[in-house]
Amino acid sequence: MGSASKQTQSNKSQGNKPSAKQASNDRRARIAELRAAEQRRDRRNKILAGSVAGVLVIAAIATGTWIVVDANKDKKAKEAAAAAPIDGVQTFGDLSRNHVKEKVTYPQTPPVGGDHNAIWLDCMGTVYDQPVENERAVHSLEHGAVWVTYNGKATPDDIKTLSEKVKATPYSLMSPYPDEQGTITLNAWSTQLTVDSASDPRVNQFFTKYVQGKQTQEPGASCTMGAM
Amino acid sequence: MTATEESAEPAEDVAATDRAASRRRIWWPAALAAALALALGVPALVAGGTSASGTSSVSAPADDSPEAGFARDMSTHHQQAVDLSFIVRDRTSDESTRTLAFDIINTQANQRGMMMGWLDQWGLTQHSPAKPMAWMSMGGHGHGADYQAHDGSLMPGMATNTQLAKLRSLSGRDAEVFYLQLMLEHHKGGVEMAQGYVDMADNATEKRLAQSMVAGQTSEIGLITDMLQERGAAPGVPAS
């Protein structure tokens, strides 16, 4: 403290009588001040430039990511269209798949799965005029076929339209089913849709989604008649 | 203060500014490169992440592409070759015919499985409401798409249901000859469709399989022609 006051005094005395040394000290102080100011300005500019660059980089990443995510979304939407849920389709969960010789009582009419006969029904776009055996048709469903059934309310036009569709579609079959509730029923393994008319757009949707669709229990299995 | 002293100080400052500027010049390219890498890399990671975790890759063919169309239609075409071959194996004991049929069953059933598997991986359905071979019109092979489906014959070379029933009713040499005649037409239609896809293919793996079909079935067309000749029969399918 004593030395500090002494220093101040000596500074004062020197201040009264400026010397070359004093001028040099002043200049150094000014330079230091200027450099400090320069450094502050530099730091400010760096922070500003860094922030701007950061914002730009984040914006670029966000834009790029958005483009990719958006493209993926479009693709998902397209895929979904190929396998989108169809209004009114009922599903029935896991059903048994044993081969049996006797008649089976099925909970659904027409049946869409459960135990069945060892020999499936020819389903290479096959149209049957007469009712077929449940136990054999169910085996065809297991192989990925769509089974079209209709009752007495179906018009000749309905039957003609559906027959043409089935004949052009391997892994589908069609037969009358007088006991069913709905006019026209589309059956796939554990899956069912009832429509009033063959012109219902859901008929084509059902074919697209379920002919050898994801519900198929044995992908790659044959639809050609088992007994040859 | 003298004039020389005055000018000396800014000179020092200029030198310092120059050094700083040169440091900045070195810093900027590196920063720019890093920013670019981030801007490109992060979305690429997002894209890569979804393709790895999702059911299909970003490059999966479209539902109406030749890739999907060929996979679907050739699967249907192949299935009938398998069916024809199973029938003849039950109708004759001739070794050479049964061996050819055995070969066709295994080859075409396995190829069918490959094509169905691709459709599954691409997230596409096995069935399409499009007309058989509609995809071929995209490549100028319009005639394939113009084929009039009739009696179960959905594409060029496919036998009708009536012809299948007739084959089931024949036996011995008659069954062999009719099978060989049907199979000859079936292979001709198959080669035409496979070549149609090869000409417009966008998928190297699928193109390779189609090329193997062209080569394999062309070679079998020669074999079948010889087998018909050995049996004293003409190649054409007789009208039934």
Automatic annotation (TrEMBL), chain A:
InterPro entries: DUF3105. The chain crosses the membrane at residues 47-69. Residues 24-40 have a biased composition (Basic and acidic residues). The keyword Membrane applies. Residues 1-23 have a biased composition (Polar residues). Residues 1-40 are annotated as: Disordered. The keyword Membrane applies. It comes from the Bacteria. Keywords: Membrane, Transmembrane, Transmembrane helix. This is DUF3105 domain-containing protein.
Automatic annotation (TrEMBL), chain B:
Residues 67-228 form the DUF305 domain. InterPro entries: DUF305_CopM-like (IPR005183), Ferritin-like (IPR012347). Residues 50-70 are annotated as: Disordered. Pfam families: DUF305. Keywords: Membrane, Transmembrane, Transmembrane helix. Residues 50-60 have a biased composition (Low complexity). The chain crosses the membrane at residues 26-46. This is DUF305 domain-containing protein.
